Structures are given as C-alpha cells and as structure tokens.
Amino acid sequence: MTRTVSGLAVAFSSSPAADLDTELLVMPVFEGEDPPARVPGLDEATAGAVSRAVASREIQGKPSELFLTPVATRWRAARVALIGAGKAEEFDPERLRRAASTAALAARQRQVRRLAFAHRGEIDAAAGVQAIAEGVLLANFRADRYKSADRGPGLLEELTVVAPGGNASLARAVERGRILGECCNLSRDLCNEPSNVLTPSVFADRAAELAREAGLGVQILDEDEISQLGMGLLL
Question: Cα–Cα distances in Å, from 51 out to 24, 48, 57, 58, 116?
C-alpha cells in the first residue's frame, strides 16, 4: 500500500530491519532496556556504536531522547536512530505519536528524504502503526510559505512504517494515520493563511474542493440564505 499526498509517499512494510532500504531507520527504545540485546543485529550493524552509547548512558530511553549513528555493515539503511519512548509500562499510542514526530523533525533537520520507522512495544500493532503515520505526517508540515528567507528544512518524501506480521489490517491502519495527519495539516495550512488571501469566498471554494475530492456534496450559503435559515450567530 503506497499513497502520495503533498509529496510524501507512505507505505507499510513487514520486512526485517536489515532489509529496509532507507536513509534513516528509527526505532523506539525504552528506559532500562538493552537495545543491542532486544534488536537482533543492531549492534553489529552499527559496529558497536549502540552498545557503547548504552554503556556511556548516552542512550537511556527517556522520552524524546535521540541517538543517531551510521550503519557500518550488513543493513541496507544508511543510518539508524533510536528515539526514547520512556517507561515501557507507560507507553501508549500518544507517546508513540510524539516520538514519531520528534524523530521526523530531527530527520528533516538532517535533510533526510526517505525515512522508515519501526513499531516496537506492547501496544496494539494497528494502533501503533497508525500513530506512527500520524506523527510523521504532523511533523512533515511547513508554515513558511510566505517567507523569502530563513525558511525551515525541506520535507520528507518517503515514509515506510514497519511492523512484523504484515497484513491488510495493518496497511489499513497506516492509511488511517496518513489520512488523519494529512487532514490536520490541511487545517493548519488554512489557519496560517493571511486574511487578505483566504477571504470568505476563497475559503468556501477551498472547502468545496476538498469536500468534492472526498466524494462529498457541497452547498455554500450566501448571506440571504443564512438569514432565511435563522443562523443569527453566523450573521
């Protein structure tokens, strides 16, 4: 399942971590866990960098903590990032969504274009992959359309959400996350438009276009029709 919206291609994969062809592979890690012991091949792929970071306490698994290292051998990903997810017993879809957003923002700052995010933890896989897709989409947003200088980093172009046991239900969950994240970004984009650009008539036209793309019928009321329907608050 692959969809492209606003330049971001979103896909689901159940491939092993070693087989993911991407610029940056992100994995959540929890407080108190030993990532090299829990993720087969991770330490070998990073030439021991992960185990050294654990020993020096550079990696502790605290929320939003980020560790990034190149892949030395075997794995197809160019780099691996470990994102702190806090205590495993407190892990939920909202914390995973925040971790995905944090990692995606860090990836954008490093000019990464192709990102893979692997679901780990005890929460339901469908809820997890949906949260990952939402979080990355929310981070893949620019509010600097009208800036001529000091613009933010570029956008991600490709996201692969990874979970074992790939099936149609997980692919649908990723698609739900993509839709929800994209809808939020559309709303943010409208909110950021200046009033001299997004006039009431322009706003109505954009809303109608979005609705029609989703297969919805649209009726736009003018001032007289609003009055006839007794919508005094809007008037």
Answer: 19, 5, 10, 10, 22
156 token code pair: 């991600």
The amino acid present at 208, given as its one-letter code, is: A
Sheet-wide strand order for 79-84? 2-5, 8-13, 158-162, 114-118, 24-29, 79-84, 66-70
* Under 8 Å between Cβ of 24 and 78: yes
Residue 30: which pLDDT band, with cuts at 50, 70 and 90? Answer: very high
Burial of residue 176, with CB atoms counted within 10 A of its CB: 0-12 exposed, 13-18 middle, 19 or more buried: middle
> Distances in Å between the alpha carbon of 106 and those of 17, 112, 167, 171?
20, 9, 29, 25
Alpha carbon separation from 177 to 131, 136, 173 (Å, rounded): 6, 9, 6
- Label residue 66 by pLDDT band (50, 70, 90): very high
Residues contacting 68, CB < 8 A, separation 6+ = 24, 79, 80, 81, 82, 106, 110
Task: Compute the distance between CA of residue 51 and CA of residue 184 in angstroms, rounded to an integer.
Answer: 38
11: left (phi over 0), alpha (psi -120 to 50) or beta: beta
210 SS3 class? helix
Q: What is the pTM of this model?
A: 0.89
Q: How far is CA 211 from the centre of its chain?
A: 24
